[in-house]
Amino acid sequence: MTSQNSLSIYARSFWLTLVVFAVFTLVFGWYVYAEKAVDQLNELRYESHILSMELQESSEDLTRLVRAYVVTGDPDYKRYFQQVLDVRDGKLPRPALGKNLFWDLVPASQAQTRDEVSKLNDFAGLRIPLLDLIKKTGISKEEFTLLEQAKANSDALTAIEFRAMDLIENPGPDVTAARAQASHLLYDEQYRKTKLAILQPIAQARHLMEARGLVLVEEAAQFAMYVRMLFVFVGILLVGMLWRAYRSLNMSLGASIHEVSASLINLGKGNFTTPVNVRPGMEVSIMGWLAMTQAKLAEIDAERNQAAQKSERLSRLYHALNQCNQSILRLENKDDLLPRICENAVTIGGLKMAWIGLVDESTQLLQPAAFFGAGASYLHGLQLSVDPAQTEKHGPSALAYLQNQPYWCQDFLHDTRTAPWHERGAAQGWLSSAALPLLKNGRVVGTFNLYAGNVNSFDVSIQDLLMEFATDISHFLNRFELEDERLHALQMEELRSYMLERITANTTQKELFHDVVLKVESLLPDCLCSIMLLDRDGIHLATGAAPSLPLPFIRAIEGEPMGVGVGSCGNALFTGERTVVADISTHAYWRDYRQLAEQFDLRSCWSEPIRSAERKVIGAFAIYHHQPSVPDTFSLNLLEMAANLIAIGMERKQAEESLHKLSQAVEQSSNAIVITDTAVNIEYANATYLKNAGKELKEVIGRKPSIMRSRKTAPEVYVDMWQQLGRGENWKGELINRYADGLDHTDLAHISPIRNSEGVVTHFLSIQEDISDKKRTEERIKYLAHYDALTGLPNRTLLDELARYALSLAERSQDALAVIFFDLDHFKDINDTLGHSLGDTLLVELAKRLVATMRENDTISRLGGDEFILLLTGVDEHRVEQVVQKLMQVVNTPFHLGEYDLNVTASMGIAIYPNDGKDLETLSRNADAAMYRAKREGRNSYRFFTQEMQERSTRHLELVNALRQALEKQQFQLHFQPQLSMQTGHVLGAEALLRWHHPVLGHVSPAEFIPVAEDSGLILPIGEWVLRTAAKQWKQWQASGLPDLLIAVNLSAVQFRHHDLPALVTRILQEADMPPACLELELTEGVAMHDPQGAIAVMNNLHERGIRMSIDDFGTGYSSLSYLKKFKVYKLKIDQSFVRDITSDPEDRAIVSAVISMAKSLGLMTIAEGVETAEQLEFLRQQQCDEVQGYYYSRPLPADEFAAFFRNSLP
């Protein structure tokens, strides 16, 4: 088969596949249509069922509502009753259908799902009778007749229900008899028969609808099944055609498109050596043709390469040797030449690898100085011993060095001397090697080592040529030794000149040290230098400069005491002798710092003491290396010179810095400084004086300082000044000068005579400090010490002074005096919502109103925040009350602040002297107590202080003080009241209740101390203690073998609103290893509804952490059902105030029943607290309450008693 035939088969397969795909698309559309028809029939069937059920449920809703109305008399039930009728008859818009149909009264088990009612929601808001809506679903005439009959019977029953409600509305003289008659109408035999007459036709109609609908759905489903089978068949056919087209294309190509493309790219790049793989049976394909092409091209290329290699090999060795000789003659740097020789030997000479090794005579180790080629990486850090005592262990390089003879290894992999390197040689292709000695001044100093890729690579001619190489390299080393000596002398002179230049330059000592260290490091490659000084105590080390040393190393040795053997620098500083440590890892001086040095790869350290001109040791200069090193002569000379020049620089810089500091202090002083001669002509003025005078230095030289005189300084001040200066004494005083800004400034002047060495006064020094701002500040401080910065009203300090004066007058004149304490109601809300700036503006405006309202001899003081104290003299209780009423009017007048109109109220407390106190502290405290009474009783009012307030205030203070120490003294205890299941009677959990026993106050009721803790801010630590203790107790019960149980903990309003509550609860649970599901946080209804949106956010946060929430005391406050549904709570706790009288009070029974019913409709659990009798328990059981707690089962118990109770209750 040819390639063209393969392409023709592929084209036919492609067009057949395209036709099948078109058929597949048409069948798919037909299938979708058939399935849609089934869905539409099912949807009509569901709608007819839902609407017929709505007719039945509306009748049941009417019955439930009328009976509830007869029992409770609540007009809302009658209103709901009429609304159900009006919606059913199309007189009111239909509500949106969701979980429930009418006002959340349908039980959850009968609620429709969203899918069931999504279609019917289209009729929400329309006024359409229910029967008309049912007719739209396409039901039969017989079905509709039955539903009409049920509707008529329901209307007849409605007449009876209206008659019962009329008896409740118009009971006549005997209410009880009327209620009994109404109940009889709703429960007698006629009512039941009429009710049955409604339900039977609906059931018959639904049966007919179901039978008819099933037949239609079955027919449509059968048709859809036939279309589905056709769709599957065409789909399988399409897959087969696609596979056939794919196989045809693959046969034409002979491989994947990627493989064909890769082969073409290889051939295009000239890569003829990589074969083109052809799978069996694919020889007659595009890939087969490429394989034949590649094989032919590879054959041609191989022949060409063999010929070229032969010619190249003949000339490359000679060229490489000549190039190496040229490098020896041309290059001047040893560090450049030796690597170049190795590189040329490999890259040009065709060798595998070459390296040059030099011997360190101090260690008798041969170390690579340059290398290049395959396997050269193993030479990093290589050290070969050339110790003559170990000849039997030496390899070719060591033998060539010791014998001063070349060593020729013609078969590297079989030579016994190279045995340790056979494995590496085989991996790198080393088949022969040579090692030639290198000499310097007639002494062997190293070897030249070469590795070739063929056995017997070194014949006689190459050996002679390589020996000439070695001789040329030796001459080069001799020349470089002489050059090194010359270079070292130049480097020493360079260092000396550089340091002297830096010493005389305008640099600091720190800069000098830094530059010197870097300079020495540049002269000694691969070294790190440092300058160590002595600390101020003369004992401990301090770093002068070490820019290249690791910072952690410097920090570690900083502050170490100097001493014998304390490292190199510590020893040099203490002994004053040079300390050379060639190998830190073995030297005793570094025993305590060896690990530190190894951490930063520091292997040697040479240190030279730095001595002052008096030969006192003032520092140490050190040189570090990353390998063990013995200093040569040049290094020692360099070390000594650097230390000597550093000592000179230190003394010079210290003198310069002292002089510079003095000069800078005068020039940069914030005070004006002037030096005059004895004739008071200015010779020097600093920058501050020139700035004050508004002149340049050349303008004031030779002039008098009086150029700034304001003529406001008293003449006697100048007389006193010249009298003291004339006697050679110092003078100090204040001068009023006029500055360049045109303003008068007060200067505090210090003028002193300056004497020469003979004691004669030659100059005067004047130092002037501008104290104008200081004086203004002092005046401002005096003002702020007595007045409020925001409102300008007297503060507490001034109030105390004015009160003492007013009280003393009142005492002498026997007059009354009133103290009014008031603050704004809900001022914090204004700050939080509108901002503190607006709050401050409100306080300022309020202060203005108060000042305008009060008499001049009255005192108005702001204590801080929104708290004010008014001090009224010469007034009795009647007059005070008039003033307070006037103040209330002033405060209640709206404040117009920018775009806001604020209506503000205040609470005020009044204390009268002398009855309520004889000093300001007592009067203000009692007025504060009266003010808080006004707040508790509704705000926007005032109260006079009474004795009863005194007693409550004393008790409150007593409790606050005791509470502050209760936690620390472990006076709190948790008791646990069991919570039991109504269904099983088993203990499910416990409520943690806080108890406080004070050694003096005895048992204090939580109802008394919890509000005190909230007011004083102590509730947060107490609440945290309760949570933490409850969690720990749960953990202890678990450890003792008790099963899991739920612990409920009450939250106060302060705790709940604290931003850290979720994180705090999570931390406590993690500390106790307590699962979040075992903790329940109880929140009162009132706290939750104070800020519903905020409560929702906190509850969501806790819910995401797995922590349960419940609503405590439910029914005592006001909860919006819309918010209640949004709260992440799982349980409602029925308050004990409702449980207490459920056996005798119908209203309490109705409330408890309604709460339980509502909770179940919302999917919430209920628990009743305060259960004390069997009758209460039985009623709650009938109402299907989930859980109970109370004294009927147990009082709150200590932890150990609760554990025993729990064990006894286990099944």
Could you give a short description of this structure?
With about 1200 residues, the protein is α+β, with helices and mostly antiparallel strands. Helices cover about 55% and strands about 15% of the residues. It folds into seven domains: about 170 residues, Up-down Bundle (Four Helix Bundle (Hemerythrin (Met), subunit A)); about 70 residues; about 150 residues, GAF domain (Beta-Lactamase, 2-Layer Sandwich); about 160 residues, Beta-Lactamase, CATH 3.30.450.40; about 110 residues, Beta-Lactamase (2-Layer Sandwich); about 160 residues, Reverse transcriptase/Diguanylate cyclase domain (Alpha-Beta Plaits, 2-Layer Sandwich), CATH 3.30.70; about 250 residues, EAL domain (TIM Barrel).
Q: Would you write up a description of this structure?
A:
- The protein has 1211 residues and is an alpha+beta fold.
- It folds into seven domains: 3-71 and 129-228, Four Helix Bundle (Hemerythrin (Met), subunit A); 254-323; 331-482, GAF domain (Beta-Lactamase), CATH 3.30.450; 505-664, GAF domain (Beta-Lactamase), CATH 3.30.450.40; 669-776, Beta-Lactamase (2-Layer Sandwich), CATH 3.30.450.20; 785-945, Reverse transcriptase/Diguanylate cyclase domain (Alpha-Beta Plaits); 961-1209, Alpha-Beta Barrel (TIM Barrel).
- It is 54% helix and 17% strand.
- It has 39 helices and 32 strands.
- α30 (1019-1039) runs parallel beside α32.
- It is flat, with a radius of gyration of 53 Å.
SSE layout and pairings?
Blueprint: H1 3-72, H2 75-88, H3 114-117, H4 130-135, H5 141-169, H6 175-187, H7 189-253, H8 257-268, H9 286-330, H10 334-347, E1 353-360, E2 365-373, E3 384-385, H11 396-403, E4 407-409, H12 422-428, E5 432-440, E6 443-452, H13 460-504, H14 509-523, E7 527-534, E8 541-545, H15 551-557, H16 567-575, E9 579-581, H17 594-599, E10 604-611, E11 617-625, H18 633-667, E12 672-677, E13 682-685, H19 687-693, H20 697-700, H21 715-726, E14 731-738, E15 744-755, E16 761-770, H22 772-784, H23 796-813, E17 817-824, H24 827-834, H25 836-853, E18 859-864, E19 867-873, H26 877-892, E20 895-897, E21 900-902, E22 906-913, H27 920-936, E23 942-944, H28 947-966, E24 972-981, E25 987-998, E26 1002-1004, H29 1006-1016, H30 1019-1039, E27 1046-1050, H31 1053-1057, H32 1061-1072, E28 1079-1084, H33 1085-1090, H34 1092-1104, E29 1108-1114, H35 1121-1126, E30 1131-1134, H36 1136-1139, H37 1146-1161, E31 1165-1169, H38 1174-1182, E32 1187-1189, H39 1199-1209
Parallel strand pairs: 22-23, 25-27, 27-28, 28-29, 29-30, 30-31, 31-32
Antiparallel strand pairs: 1-2, 1-6, 2-3, 4-5, 5-6, 7-8, 7-11, 9-10, 10-11, 12-13, 12-16, 14-15, 15-16, 17-19, 17-22, 18-19, 20-21, 24-25, 24-32, 25-26
